[in-house]
Specification:
The protein has 284 residues and is of the alpha/beta class. The chain has a single domain (5-206), classed as Spore Coat Polysaccharide Biosynthesis Protein SpsA, Chain A (Alpha-Beta Complex). Helices cover 42% and strands 20% of the residues. The protein is built from eleven helices and ten strands. It has helices spanning 15-26, 46-52, 66-76, 95-105, 140-145, 157-162, 174-184, 206-213, 216-228, 233-248, 254-270; strands spanning 5-11, 33-39, 57-60, 81-86, 90-91, 110-118, 124-127, 136-138, 153-156, 189-200. Strands 1, 2, 3, 4, 5, 6, 7, 8, 9 and 10 form a ten-stranded mixed β-sheet that branches. Helix 1 links the parallel strand 1 and strand 2. The longest helix is centred in the C-terminal third of the chain and has 17 residues, at 254-270. The protein is globular and about 60 Å long. The protein starts with a strand and ends in a 14-residue tail after the last helix.
Length: 284
């Protein structure tokens, strides 16, 4: 009998972090899940993995990159739903139980909560700004305002596969691209305001690199330019609004973008100028 959930942990040459990630999975209150560890750097000893998480299945990659590694895990998942965890981040105990319960009660295809950011020195760096989105039903314009962090997303496995999985062409937003494509395909998406995971920030990581080199604008524009050619006409129109926000302001961080986009979204909402209830279900 297949499990309800597949938990996919991706790693690249950081076995010391994987142990902590797997320990956090072991503390999840929901127990009916399979665990897949995608080792994209061939650094995990199978014997050590069995010590860290008995029953975890190891899948080898060969420096494929994070999107391809996630897709490798997605392709091997047998759960109705899939949930993801980066090797240096932590799941909180109620993560799967909260999202799975929400998916069932709301008949949702994708559910997400909030992620707490933790600085390299252990200090609280604030939550990913998903508070910018109203709790409940979410549409494409909501997800354009703020991307839920992958560690706090539960998604129907087969639906994500049919949508093409994670975007291997994206330098930074392979997961955000996937959620937006699902929203454009009328997936039922539900947001909760519970903090369900921790994202540990590192200066040497991709987010630190983006901050130091100030390429956030470029990455945003590359994503939006690509999506305009992949989404429906209505979806492309919404993406064009986001593109204008990204190109019209000095945006150095993801929070800068979320702040600017939330103002535009609120203004459109107050003027009843949403791009259709399919995209922005909170419009009156």
């Amino acid at each position: 009998m297949s499990p309800e959930v597949t938990a996919i942990v991706t790693t690249h040459q950081r076995p010391e972090h994987v142990r902590n990630a797997l320990r956090s999975l072991a503390q999840e209150t929901h127990r009916d899940f399979e665990c897949l560890v995608v080792d994209d750097g061939e650094s995990i000893d199978p014997d050590r993995l069995r010590e860290w998480h008995p029953g975890a299945r190891l899948i080898r990659g060969h420096s494929l990159g994070v999107a391809a590694a996630r897709n490798l895990g997605l392709g091997s998942a047998s759960g109705t739903f899939s949930i993801f965890l980066d090797d240096d981040d932590l799941a909180l105990p109620s993560r799967i139980s909260t999202l799975l319960r929400t998916a069932k009660t709301q008949h949702a295809d994708l559910c997400y909560g909030m992620t707490r950011r933790v600085a390299a020195d252990g200090a609280d760096a604030g939550n990913v700004p998903t508070h910018r989105i109203t709790q409940g039903l979410a549409g494409l314009c909501d997800l354009l305002t703020c991307a839920p962090h992958i560690n706090a997303v539960l998604v129907r496995t087969e639906l994500l596969r049919r949508a093409g999985g994670f975007d291997g062409r994206s330098a930074h937003f392979d997961d955000w691209s996937a959620w937006l494509r699902l929203a454009d395909r009328d997936a039922r998406i539900w947001s909760v305001d519970d903090v369900l995971a921790e994202w540990h920030l590192h200066d040497a990581g991709l987010t630190g690199l983006v901050s130091r080199t100030r390429v956030m604008n470029r990455y945003l524009l590359e994503l939006f330019d690509r999506l305009r050619g992949e989404l429906s006409a209505e979806g492309a129109l919404a993406v064009e609004v986001a593109r204008r926000v990204a190109s019209g302001q000095a945006i150095e961080s993801y929070d800068d973008y979320a702040d600017a986009m939330s103002v535009v979204r609120a203004t459109m909402h107050s003027r009843h100028e949403c791009l259709g209830p399919r995209l922005l279900p909170h419009c009156d």
